[in-house]
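Following up on my earlier thread - several people asked me to post the actual chain instead of describing it. Fair enough. Here it is, all 343 residues.
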Amino acid sequence: MKKLFFSLLLMSALLYVSAQERVLFVGNSLTYYNDMPTLFETIASVKGYPVTVESYTVGGTGLAEMLATGEVVRLIQSEQWDKMVLQPGTGESAGGSIPTDSSAWVVRQLVETLHAINPNAKVCLYEISNGITPGDGDGDYDYYLYTQQRILDSVTNIAQLSGLPFAPAGECFREHYATHHDLMLHSVFNDIHPNLAGSYLVACAIFETLYEVPVAPCDYYSTIDPEQAEYLQQIADTVVLPNRERWLMGPGESPDPDPDPNTNAITQSNIQAFNIYPNPTTGQIHLDAINVSSIKEVVIHDLRGNKRVLTPQDGTLDLSTFAPGIYILQIGSHSQKVVVCHP
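Reply from S.P.:
Thanks for posting it. Predicted structure:
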């Protein structure tokens, strides 16, 4: 009898584990502050959606830099992820560090990597909130609202170009700060990072975007005052689902998967993958690919979003005029990182 009981218990445990969805968060400190992915994990589980989360986060870094290192790509390829949340960097979110079309290209590379492993995996972007400048000492909330609109416009453009929905966490913050001139969601002025209440609100917004159900009622409050936590749940319920079309959550035509004419230049379907050597390089690099002679053009991106198109000669590219740094070489839908050094 005991054996049967423990066998049933083990089977139940295994079924529960297998039912858990695996969610990958990719971002910087705006994701890892207050362990926001774990807040999301607990909210989802309490709401009846058992998940396990993992994060790839690097402070002060954007998605373009993460793609260039290759580590996040290897992590995506190493597991069977059911969902992925991508947080563009602070500069990327505002369209400042690189153009939004370049950010969208980076996002598409990460999504294509995921969908090669799990074609049904769901992906969303995480729209961040800006911090509040002190102004005359009581907070410049007009400037906050202005910069938050810039972030919304930029992230909307990235989402449209990459064909993804986005979690409007920044708009949930704006819903509060438009009428309450306080620091409920940030600890101090001039700090873009959310406090615990802010991270809890981010987790609520991401939960609603991924699962498309209201977060309230939810009796998980972390260490936040229950009344405040319920207020934050209500904000998410007010902002996310009633405005789903604004966040590209609703049905509709898929956007052009590659609106940039430069990246459409390579149409050789017989190029399945390629490698480059030497890497790092001080000048010339060689392309190693099947039917390398059919490669007519290579698109080269730097991390600021600039692009150049080169024509290889006998499978060789000359990068001697490029400034030292990290570049992404793209042929069709495949890409490789190359590091250019001083000779």
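The domain at 18-243 is CATH 3.40.50.1110 (Rossmann fold). That should answer part of your original question.
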